[in-house]
Design brief:
The complex is a heterodimer of chains A (about 350) and B (about 800). By secondary structure, chain A is α+β, with helices and mostly antiparallel strands. Chain A contains 12 helices and 9 strands. Chain A folds into 2 domains: about 90 residues; about 230 residues, BirA Bifunctional Protein, domain 2 (2-Layer Sandwich). Chain B contains 20 helices and 41 strands. Classes of the chains: A alpha+beta (about 350), B alpha+beta (about 800). The structure holds zinc ion (ZN).
C-alpha cells in the first residue's frame, strides 16, 4: 500500500468515525485519534522530509487535504452534537412552572382612602384645591359660624363628642370651609376630605367616619353648576351611566338645600329586589345646597356679589356601596381579612 | 310624623298610590322614612251577628260560633271567649289579604270548618289590643261592609320631618303641603260647638315666666261623662298616628295634636287648687310624673302649677296629681306656646322626649292655639259629651304678626340656575299660604305665621325651586379660574401611603381615641386629652401615638388566627396645649365666638394636632414559601422602611418605655427628631395581647418624611468599575453605621458605592471584637489601575484605623 493509499484509507476511516460520533467527548477523542500529535496522519506529515521529492509533493498535498477534510467534518459534526447536547441539558433543567414564584408582597390601600383619593383627583382635575383643618374644632367653627347657634335644635342631631370647654371633635368637615373662606377672597374652589366624629355606633354609623365636603364661591354660581359638577363626579366614581337627581333637603348652612341621589349602578333601577338600592333605583349619595347668605356674611363675603354651592358626601358609605360592604364597622377594625380585599 | 292616608283624604282629594305619594313627597318636600300597613289591605270585612257561641268540642282553648252575615249563616272557629249570641262582630271574608301579607282562607280547625275570622282590634288596625274579639255596637248593620263605617285597612307614611318644618308635625300641615305640591285645594274641619259650660274664670291664670311662655290659653269643659272611651274612628287614627288610645278626654287632646301639631294638656278641674300658674321651677322642687319617675326641677325648668304644687313640666310631661282619669267630669284644657329652646333643654336635661316636647322644641306658631282650642272643645262635646265654657283665659301679650319677605325673580333664577316665571312663582307661594303682591319688580310675600322658617329671600327661592321641581334644574359645569393641585404636604402624604402599600403593608384606619390604659400600657407620661362624653370607657381619650390603635388591630388579627401582619396608618395625634390661666378667658371667647383678640388663634385652641405615619410589623409578616424564608418582624425590617421614608435619617439609640431597650432608635433628620423605630418591649406586647410575637414598629412625623426626594443628576463615566472587599476587626461596641458614614464622607470621588456584606463576632474573631466586611465599588473618569484602587482602599482603611481602631482582618 502506498502512503497515499494509506492516507486515503485513514481519511475514510476518520470520516466514518466522525459520522458515528454521538457526543462532543467522542468527537474530541476522534480528533485526537486522527489528527492528534501522535495520530498516524500526523506521523506521516512529520515523515514527509524523508520521502523522495516526487512523493513528498504528492503525500504533502494529499495529507493536508485529508486533514482539512477531517477537520471540516469534525467541526460540522461537533456543532450538531453540541447543539443537541445543550438541548438535552436544558431539558434536564426543566422546573415545575406551576410552582409559585418568589413572592413580592402586595400591600393595600384602605377602601375609604381609595374613594377619597379618587374623588379628590376628580376635583383637582376640575381646578379645585384641597383644604384641610383640625379634627379638634372650636364650638364656633363647628356650629355657630355654620348658622347653628348655641341651643339650636340642629345641634342635638350632631351627637357631638365634647372635649375641654368650647372644643369638640368636629362633627363634619364644614368648619374647614369656614376657615378657608376666612383666609381668602373669592373665587374659592376647594374640597375638604377628612375624619369626622359622632357619638354613634351601629352597622351604618361609627363614632368616626370620613367626609368630603366641597365649596365653590364665585360670581354667578347656581344650583345648575352644583348639579352638573356632582353629576360629573358621580359618573367619574360610579361609571358613565350614572344619573343624578336632586331632592329638597335641609342643612343649616345652605339655602336652598338639596339631597342628591345617584341611579343605582348595579341594577339601574330595573330590579325590584336589588340588594344595593332595595328596589328604589336610587341611592342617597350626598347633601348639598347653595351657601346660605348668612354664612357668606359671617366670613365677610358679600352675598349680593357672590353665590356659592357646597356639598358633602361620605366616602365610607360610597365605598360600602361601590364594593358591596354590608357593615361600616369593618372599615375601622384594622382586620387584614378586610383590608386585603382592596 | 306618621300620616295615615285615609285620614289625609279628609282634607284633600287625591288619586295616588302609596308609592306614587312617597315618590312625589320625597322629590318635592320631605323624605319618607317608611310605609306601614295595618288591618286588611285587600278584600272585605262584613258586619255579622253572633247567633250561637260555645266551646270547640275538640280543643280546650278554641270556641265555635254561628254568625249571621245578613241572610247567610257561617261557622267560625274563634280563639277568644268574649263574643256572645246577639253580639255584632267584624268578619273578614276568605281570600282577604292582611297587612302582614298573609291571605286568609277557609280552613278546618281541629275538625271543624271555619269561615273567615272574627277580628280583634289589632287585626283591624284599630289598636294594639289583641285580647278579645272586637264587638261592634248596634248602629253597625248586619251584612254591611265594615268599611262603610271605618277603614278596615290603613297605609301610613312616616315622614322624616326636617327641623325647619314644625308645621308638618300635624295632619293639616301635611295636607297643605300636599295640596301645594299637587296644585289643588285642601279643607280643614270647621270646629263648632255650643258653649254654656261652667265658667273657666272660676280658676285663675297667672303667667309668671312670660319669657318662656309667649302664649297660654285655658278653657274649661265641664259636665263630661266619666270613664268614656273615645269613638272607634278616633282611636284607630290615634293608633295609626303612632300613639296609644287612653280615654275620651286624653284622646281628644292627642287627636287634635296629631291633626294640628299643637300639643294640648287637660287637667282634672277638681284637682286644680286655686288656679293655674305658669312659673319657673323652684330649687329642689320635686314632681312625680305620669311615667312614675320623680324629677328634681330647677329654675330653668318651666312648670305649670296650681297655687300649691307643680302639675306639669311644661311641654314635656304631666304629673299624676291633676291628670284626667276615669272619674273626671270637669276638665281645664291648656293650649299653650312655649319657648322651643327651653323645652329642648329641659327635655335633654331630663332625658325625656315626648310627642309634645318634640313638637314644642322646634318652635310652634302661637297663632295655632285658637284653632286647636276650638277643635278640641268641639271634640269634647261629642264622645264624653262635655259642655264648653263661654270664656277662655288667655295670656298672649305680644301676638305674632305675619311678616313680609321680598323675592327678586332674577335672584331666584340665579340661585336655582333655571328660568322661573313670575306667575308660577307667585302661585306657588300662594299655595303655601302666602299672600303675594308684585311691586317694584319683586314679589312681596306675606308669610303665614305657621311658616316660621321663611324669613329671607333665599328661603322663598328654596320653596319656589322645590315646588317647580328640582328635576328641571339643568346640569352645568362652572368655569374654575385656577389650576387644581395638591399642596406639597398633601402630595407627600399620598406618596407615603402609596409607598408603604407598594412595600407590602396594608393601610388601616383606626379610631383615634382609646381607653386610658393605652397611656399606661405604653408607659407614656403625657396625659392624653379626655372626651367628656365618650361612647364607652374604651374610647375616652384621644391618642398621642398611632401605635396603640395599630397594636390593638394586630391583636385582633391574631385573635382571628392571623400569624402576623404589616399595618400602617396615617393620621393625627393630639396633645394638650392648655392655654395659660390668663389666656383662659380669651381662649373660651375664641372657641365660642371665633374672636381672636390680640392673641394668635393657635395658642387659644388648647390642642396641638400632629400628622403622623405609623407602622406595626407583627409576628410572621409573611410565612416561608417553598422558595423563600419567612419574613418576621424585627428591628431591621422596620428600619428598612424608615430608610425608604426618610432617606437622610440618622439613627440614635434610645430608651423608651414601650420599646426594647437594646433595639430601638430615634430617627433624626438633621437636628430634628422625626420619630422612632424599634422592637416593641415584650412586656408591652403582652399587655396588648401580642405576647410571644416579635413586634417592630415605627412612627414618624409626616412633615419630616421625604419619600420622594427631588432627583439631582450626578455625572458618570463609561469605563469599567472595580469591586473590592475589605474586612476589618473593630471593638464590638463600635457602631457600624458610624463607620459607614465615615467612609462615605471620604473626599475621594472614586468610591461610588459602599455596602456592608457581613458582620461577625465569635471564634475565630478575638473576644470583644467583631469583623465587619465592606464591599466597595470604584469608578473614575478613566479605567482605574490596580495601584489606583489599592491607594483608595488604603485611604479607607487608614480612616477606619484612625477613627475606629480598625485592623485589617487577615
Ligand atoms: Zn339597584
Amino acid at each position: 500500500m502506498t502512503v497515499s493509499e494509506r492516507i486515503e484509507q485513514l481519511k475514510t476511516e476518520a470520516l466514518s468515525a466522525v459520522a458515528t460520533g454521538v457526543s462532543t467527548a467522542d468527537l474530541e477523542d476522534i480528533r485526537v485519534r486522527f489528527l492528534g500529535r501522535s495520530a498516524e496522519l500526523t506521523e506521516i506529515k512529520k515523515s514527509i522530509g524523508t520521502l523522495s521529492p516526487e512523493e513528498r509533493k504528492e503525500v504533502g498535498r494529499s495529507s493536508n487535504l485529508a486533514s482539512r477534510e477531517i477537520e471540516a467534518a469534525l467541526g460540522a459534526r461537533t456543532e450538531e452534537v453540541a447543539a443537541r447536547e445543550q438541548e438535552e441539558r436544558l431539558r434536564a433543567e426543566a422546573v415545575d412552572v406551576t410552582l409559585p414564584g418568589v413572592p413580592s408582597q402586595r400591600g393595600h390601600l384602605h377602601p375609604s382612602q381609595i374613594v377619597i383619593d379618587d374623588v379628590v383627583d376628580f376635583f383637582v382635575g376640575l381646578g379645585y384645591r384641597v383644604a384641610e383643618g383640625p379634627e379638634v374644632e372650636t364650638d364656633y367653627y363647628n356650629f355657630t359660624a355654620l348658622n347653628i347657634p348655641e341651643h339650636h335644635p340642629a345641634r342635638g342631631e350632631h351627637d357631638t363628642f365634647f372635649l375641654d370647654e368650647g372644643l369638640v371633635l368636629r362633627t363634619h368637615t364644614s368648619p374647614v370651609q369656614i376657615r378657608t373662606m376666612l383666609s381668602q377672597e373669592p373665587p374659592v374652589f376647594v374640597v375638604c376630605p377628612g375624619r369626622t366624629y359622632r357619638n354613634d355606633n351601629d352597622p351604618t354609623h361609627t363614632p368616626m367616619f370620613h367626609q368630603i365636603e366641597g365649596l365653590a364661591v364665585d360670581r354667578g354660581l347656581t344650583l345648575a353648576h352644583l348639579k352638573g359638577t356632582l353629576a360629573a363626579m358621580a359618573r367619574h366614581v360610579f361609571g358613565e351611566d350614572a344619573e343624578v337627581r336632586l331632592r329638597p333637603g335641609y342643612f343649616q348652612f345652605t339655602e336652598p338645600s338639596v339631597e342628591l341621589d345617584i341611579s343605582c349602578f348595579v341594577c339601574g333601577g330595573t330590579d325590584p329586589n336589588c340588594k344595593v338600592c332595595k328596589g328604589a333605583g336610587w341611592l342617597e349619595m350626598l347633601g348639598a345646597g347653595m351657601v346660605d347668605p348668612s354664612v357668606l356674611e359671617e366670613v365677610g363675603y358679600d352675598p349680593e356679589e357672590y353665590t356659592g354651592f357646597a356639598f358633602g358626601m361620605g366616602p365610607d358609605r360610597m365605598a360600602m356601596v361601590k364594593y358591596g360592604v354590608p357593615d361600616l364597622r369593618l372599615f375601622f377594625e384594622g382586620d387584614l381579612r378586610f383590608l386585603r380585599q382592596f | 310624623m306618621r300620616v295615615p292616608l285615609s285620614w289625609l283624604h279628609d282634607y284633600l282629594d287625591f288619586d295616588l298610590s302609596a308609592d306614587e305619594l312617597v315618590n312625589l313627597f320625597s322629590l318635592r318636600s320631605q323624605e319618607i322614612d317608611g310605609v306601614y300597613r295595618f288591618g286588611v289591605t285587600e278584600g272585605d270585612v262584613v258586619v255579622g251577628e253572633v247567633v250561637e257561641f260555645g266551646p270547640h268540642p275538640n280543643a280546650d282553648r278554641l270556641f265555635v260560633a254561628k254568625v249571621d252575615l245578613g241572610g247567610r249563616e257561617v261557622q267560625i272557629v274563634a280563639g277568644a271567649p268574649n263574643p256572645y249570641p246577639g253580639a255584632r262582630v267584624a268578619v273578614v271574608v276568605p281570600g282577604s289579604v292582611m297587612s302582614d301579607g298573609t291571605t286568609l282562607r277557609e280552613a278546618r280547625l281541629r275538625g271543624l270548618q271555619s269561615y273567615g275570622m272574627m277580628m280583634s282590634e289589632r287585626e283591624l288596625g284599630i289598636s294594639a289590643d289583641h285580647g278579645g274579639i272586637l264587638l261592634l255596637d248596634d248602629c253597625y248593620e248586619v251584612g254591611r261592609p265594615v268599611a262603610e263605617y271605618f277603614p278596615v285597612g290603613e297605609t301610613v307614611l312616616d315622614i322624616d320631618v326636617t327641623p325647619n318644618r314644625p308645621d308638618l308635625w300635624g295632619m293639616i300641615g301635611v295636607a297643605r303641603e300636599l295640596a301645594a305640591i299637587l296644585g289643588t285645594d285642601y279643607r280643614i274641619p270647621e270646629p263648632s260647638f255650643e258653649a254654656g259650660g261652667k265658667p273657666t274664670h272660676d280658676f285663675g291664670l297667672r303667667v309668671e315666666a312670660g319669657d318662656l311662655c309667649p302664649r297660654y290659653d285655658l278653657r274649661r269643659v265641664s259636665d263630661l261623662e266619666p270613664g268614656q272611651e273615645a269613638p272607634l274612628w278616633m282611636r284607630r287614627r290615634i293608633y295609626a298616628g303612632g300613639m296609644r288610645p287612653i280615654n275620651a278626654i286624653v284622646d281628644a287632646t292627642n287627636y287634635v295634636m296629631l291633626e294640628t301639631g299643637q300639643p294640648i294638656h287637660a287637667f282634672d278641674a277638681a284637682m286644680v287648687r286655686g288656679g293655674i300658674v305658669v312659673r319657673r321651677g323652684r330649687a329642689q322642687e320635686k314632681i312625680t310624673l305620669l311615667d312614675g319617675s320623680t324629677r328634681v326641677l330647677d329654675e330653668e325648668t318651666l312648670v305649670i302649677a296650681d297655687e300649691e304644687r307643680g302639675l306639669v313640666i311644661a311641654g314635656v310631661m304631666g304629673a299624676e296629681d291633676a291628670e284626667v282619669g276615669e272619674e273626671t267630669t270637669d276638665a281645664v284644657i291648656e293650649v299653650a306656646n312655649f319657648d322651643g329652646r327651653n323645652i329642648l333643654q329641659t327635655s335633654q336635661k331630663l332625658g325625656l322626649r315626648t310627642d309634645a316636647s318634640g313638637r314644642f322644641e322646634r318652635g310652634l306658631d302661637p297663632n295655632m292655639v285658637s284653632y286647636a282650642m276650638d277643635r278640641v272643645s268641639a271634640l269634647l262635646t261629642r264622645a264624653p259629651g262635655g259642655r264648653v265654657a263661654d270664656d277662655t283665659l288667655s295670656h298672649y301679650p305680644e301676638p305674632v304678626q305675619p311678616w313680609r319677605v321680598p323675592m327678586r325673580l332674577g335672584r331666584a333664577e340665579l340661585l336655582l340656575g333655571m328660568p322661573v316665571q313670575v306667575d308660577e312663582a307667585s302661585g306657588l307661594l300662594e299655595s303655601l299660604g302666602c299672600e303675594v303682591e308684585r311691586t317694584d319688580g319683586r314679589l312681596w310675600a306675606t308669610m303665614p305665621t305657621f311658616r316660621r322658617d321663611l324669613r329671607r329671600e333665599a328661603d322663598l327661592v328654596e320653596e319656589v325651586g322645590r315646588l317647580i321641581g328640582l328635576d328641571s334644574v339643568p346640569e352645568m359645569l362652572p368655569a374654575v379660574p385656577q389650576p387644581g393641585a395638591l399642596t406639597e404636604a398633601q402630595q407627600k402624604t399620598r406618596s407615603l401611603r402609596r409607598l408603604l402599600a407598594d412595600l407590602g403593608l396594608s393601610e388601616a384606619i383606626t379610631y383615634p381615641f382609646g381607653p386610658e390604659r393605652w397611656t399606661e400600657d405604653l408607659g407614656l407620661e403625657d396625659g392624653p386629652i379626655g372626651i367628656e362624653n365618650p361612647l364607652s370607657a374604651e374610647g375616652g381619650y384621644l391618642r398621642t401615638s398611632i401605635l396603640p390603635g395599630l397594636l390593638d388591630a394586630a391583636a385582633r388579627n391574631r385573635a382571628f388566627g392571623a400569624r402576623g401582619g404589616a399595618l400602617f396608618e396615617h393620621g393625627n395625634v393630639f396633645f394638650s396645649d392648655v392655654p395659660q390661666d390668663d389666656l383662659r378667658e380669651a381662649a373660651l371667647r375664641f372657641r365660642m365666638t371665633g374672636e381672636v383678640g390680640a392673641q394668635l388663634a393657635e395658642g387659644l385652641m388648647g390642642v396641638r394636632e400632629v400628622s403622623r405615619i405609623g407602622v406595626v410589623l407583627a409576628g410572621t409578616v409573611r410565612p416561608a414559601g417553598w422558595n423563600v424564608p419567612e419574613f418576621r418582624a424585627g428591628f431591621f425590617e422596620a428600619k428598612g422602611l424608615v430608610e425608604r421614608l426618610v432617606p437622610d435619617a440618622r439613627f440614635v439609640p434610645t430608651e423608651r418605655t414601650y420599646l426594647h431597650p437594646g433595639r430601638s432608635a430615634v430617627v433624626m433628620v438633621g437636628d430634628t427628631e422625626a420619630g422612632w423605630v424599634g422592637e416593641l418591649h415584650p412586656e408591652v406586647a403582652g399587655r396588648f395581647g401580642l405576647d410571644g410575637w416579635p413586634v417592630a414598629a415605627l412612627e414618624l412625623d409626616t412633615a419630616l418624611c421625604q419619600p420622594g426626594p427631588e432627583p439631582r443628576f450626578e455625572p458618570f463615566f463609561n469605563v469599567p468599575a472595580v469591586a473590592r472587599d475589605l474586612a476589618v476587626l473593630v471593638e464590638e461596641r463600635i457602631p457600624v453605621g458610624d463607620m459607614l458614614c465615615s467612609v462615605r464622607d471620604l473626599p475621594g470621588p472614586l468610591l461610588t458605592e459602599v455596602r456592608i456584606f457581613d458582620v461577625y463576632a465569635g471564634s475565630p474573631v478575638p473576644q470583644g471584637q467583631k469583623s465587619v466586611a465592606f464591599g466597595f465599588t470604584f469608578q473614575g473618569e478613566k479605567t482605574l489601575t490596580d495601584e489606583e484602587v489599592d491607594a483608595e482602599v488604603g485611604l479607607v482603611l487608614s480612616r477606619l484605623e484612625d477613627e475606629f481602631g480598625a485592623r485589617v482582618r487577615s
